[in-house]
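Okay, is this right?
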Amino acid sequence: MSFRRAVSALLLIAYLPACTSFQSTSQPLTELTAPPKPIARVQVTNAARARVEVWAPLVEGDTLRGYSPGGGTFALPLSTIRLVEVRKTDWGPTILLTGVSVLFLIGVVSMAAEGGI
């Protein structure tokens, strides 16, 4: 593996998104979607227990409006929402995954430098 490829791989690993998951919140949707820093994504569970991921959520009156991951727009009455979850970073797995990846690349680069690859 050439030095350029190793550096490119390291940069790619550093760019990988962090380990995240949706976690429930008690904060009202009106606060989550309000300026100055509205949340980018939210996942809601409705009365029928269907989970819906909403991008660019916006509360207008008694309705949650937003975009689905596929790009379509939709509206959901607030009265049908039973659970609100927001995306949060899990720092433990993120640090562990990054550390293991960096150590692996260091090993590959040192093997390449010694002529083992």
User: Anything to note?
Assistant: The CA atoms of residues 1 and 112 lie 6 Å apart. The longest helix spans residues 91-114. The helical segments are 3-15, 29-32, 91-114.
